[in-house]
Design a protein that fits this description.
There is one protein chain. The protein has 112 residues and is an alpha+beta fold. The chain has a single domain (31-111), classed as Winged helix-like DNA-binding domain superfamily/Winged helix DNA-binding domain (Arc Repressor Mutant, subunit A, Orthogonal Bundle). It is built from 5 helices and 5 strands, in the order E-E-H-H-E-H-H-E-E-H. It has helices spanning 22-35, 38-50, 55-62, 66-78, 97-111; strands at residues 5-10, 16-21, 53-54, 82-87, 90-95. The strands form 2 sheets. A 3-stranded antiparallel β-sheet has the order 3-5-4. It has a two-stranded antiparallel sheet with strand order 1-2. The chain is elongated, with a radius of gyration of 19 Å.
Length: 112
């Protein structure tokens, strides 16, 4: 076992092995954790309802501090759940529906 992988013996006679990439599992957990948060779910709902929204509009609608809204948007952006688009001096956030569908399908396979 290294810091980033775990090798497990497989088969009834333990003749084979399977290696699990622990770093990838940690990264996947961060992606799932990004959407498994009530405030970030509210942020996604607001973005979805408006199609696209600025951080200013978002923090006013949700009655948050600007820094809090920005931190949560950064988490959602890094996980790939929101996209950004610059229009002049404004940055608009929109939902990356393909990414949400991809993660939802993966989770469906995991729990099946």
């Amino acid at each position: 076992m290294t810091n980033h992988s775990l090798t497990i013996n497989t088969g009834p006679d333990k003749s084979g092995t399977s290696t699990i990439n622990l770093l990838n599992i940690k990264k996947a957990a961060l992606v799932l954790r990004a959407v498994n948060h009530k405030l970030r779910q509210q942020i996604l709902k607001q973005i979805d309802e408006h199609g696209k929204i600025t951080v200013t509009e978002l923090y006013l609608k949700l009655r948050l501090e600007q820094s809090v809204a920005s931190q949560h948007l950064t988490i959602l952006r890094k996980a790939g759940f929101v996209k950004t688009e610059r229009e002049g001096k404004f940055i608009y956030y929109s939902i990356n529906t393909a990414r949400l569908q991809e993660v939802n399908a993966l989770v469906g396979r995991l729990i099946a």
